[in-house]
Amino acid sequence: MKTSLTGIKPTATPHLGNYLGAIRPALKLAERFHTFYFIADYHALTTVRDPADMQRYVYDVAATWIAAGLDPDKTVLFRQSAVPEVFELAWVLGCLINTGQLERGHAYKDFLAKNEGHKPNAGVTYYPVLMAADILLYDTDVVPIGKDQKQHLELTRDVAERVNHVFGGGDPILVVPEAIIGDAPLVPGLDGEKMSKSRGNAIPLFAPAKKLRKTIMRIETGSEPLEAPKDPESSTVWQLCRQLTPAVADEMADKLRAGGYGWGHAKQDFFEALDHELGPMRETYQELRADEEQLDLFLASGAERARNRARNTMMRVREATGIRRPLSDLRRTVEIKK
Ligand code: ADP
Ligand code: TRP
User: Which ligand number lies closest to the CA of residue 18?
Assistant: First the structure.
């Protein structure tokens, strides 16, 4: 069975855009792949400065993924920081990546554009190297990611091929992964722009039903009267509904086009469909979130399994680079000395 891996940065409590755009599709892949999903806490450290926030978000993310259907017995769920081999591999990869490649990175260039006259911290610059190590450490075949991560995957493939070429002598040392980039449109937020934690337009995933309904009633709509026929495609509430459940969205589209069905009705129908999907998850989430010890146990068991794979990969890399001689060689040396 092939391996699918993805990393989730613990920089906020997940919202509906994360769920529809990343979590739900990644969990679908778990049916066909051996899945490794990890919480990229050291990547988050490039921006998160409050240790209490870091801790909280790690647990929020872990509980969200399990509540959304991740089976911790089947999927390997762990914290990036629990597998220190990732830093060792990152160094090896860094020695094969030209700094010019890093200066062309999106995040690096974004930082310069937004902070004139300043340079980013080295973590921001080095971000793509650690991400390549995250992926290559676990012999990953496929990586489900958003479009914004495409460049990182290209760099990962590039450096894996370079390691194989420079150190492999014809034998592949690292698996060259493929990206899986969904073609679903971005999930819009309350204002119709991309749903994002920083825009303040997000729909929280596990808010109590009453609060969820209140938030949904804030989705911006046109001001046509109730009787008027309406265009579903251009409305945020219909676009959200289509991403959630196409069947409900088809019905909603017919009703909107026919007239006599207001935006308030559409929002109520969307709320009911959403609450139907999220309601049971919300309960599981609350239970899990209240038990950090249990979450730690899930994460520790995932880390153990992830580390086994990581050690194997690092053994191959160390042998190939000459950093450590194979164990068989060491044994031979000991025997000769005796
Ligand atoms: P945010 O944009 O709120 O900061 P992140 O950048 O942390 O969210 O995104 C985490 C994951 O969720 C990524 O895989 C990203 O592609 C996905 N994602 C975030 N927002 C959306 C959205 N509005 N629509 C679809 N996917 C999204
Ligand atoms: N950079 C990714 C993001 O910002 C998170 C991430 C870190 C990741 N390591 C990864 C994603 C490895 C996929 C594979 O969303």
Answer: 1
Domain 206-288: assigned CATH number: 1.10.240.10
The reply to whether the predicted model has a pTM over 0.85 is yes
The residue contributing the CA closest to ligand 1 atom 10 is: 18
Q: Which residues contact 309 (CB under 8 A, 6 or more apart)?
A: 36, 137, 138, 139
For a ligand 1 pocket test, name from 18, 131, 145, 191 the mutation site with the most ligand atoms within 8 angstroms of its C-beta.
18
Residue 15 sits at φ, ψ, to 5 deg, of -115, 180
- Residue 3 forms beta bridges with which residues? 34
Distance CA 61, CA 313 (A): 27
Residues in the chain: 338
Ligand nearest to the CA of 187: 1
- 228: amino acid identity, one letter: A
Within the chain, where are the H helices?
A: 16-18, 24-29, 41-44, 51-67, 85-94, 99-103, 106-114, 122-136, 150-168, 209-216, 236-244, 246-258, 263-289, 292-321, 327-337
Which pLDDT does position 147 carry in this prediction? 86
Does 3-186+305-337 carry CATH code 2.40.10.120?
A: no
Q: Which one-letter DSSP state was computed for residue 259?
A: S
Domain map (residue ranges) of the chain: 3-186+305-337, 206-288
User: Which of 82-86, 189-193, 320-324 has the least mean pLDDT?
Assistant: 320-324
CB of 10 closer than 8 Å to CB of 54: yes
* Residue pLDDT, tens place only, 27-57: 999 999 999 999 999 999 999 999 999 999 9
**Ramachandran region of residue 259, left (φ > 0), alpha (ψ -120 to 50) or beta?**
left
The residues near 191 (Cβ < 8 Å, ≥ 6 apart) are 199, 201, 220, 236
